[in-house]
User: Fold ABC transporter domain-containing protein from Brucella anthropi.
Amino acid sequence: MSDHLLTVSQLSCGYPQRPVLETISLPPCRAGTLTAVVGPNAAGKTTLLRAVAGLLPARGNVQFRGQNLLDLPVAELARIVTYMPQSLPRGVALTESRLS
Assistant:
């Protein structure tokens, strides 16, 4: 069994009339390790994370524990993936106890 928790290959995504990422592949994220996505402003970091979480339409392959997230129905994806933006909308609060 592979220790690859998340693998992103040939991922393309963006916004209407504005492609942002084209055929991006990343080294596998392994269980028990820390992975950082770093780069300058407007490099596509947030777009990448939103596409991996299924919040943006994307093409390619996003494997999580051997399952392609891009092929899953929304209800099943929601049971697997959580996305927390850098800033929460006004009036929304989230505490650690609400995540449990």
Q: What stands out?
A: The longest strand covers residues 4-15. Strands lie at 4-15, 18-24, 29-30, 58-64, 67-68. The chain has three helices and five strands.
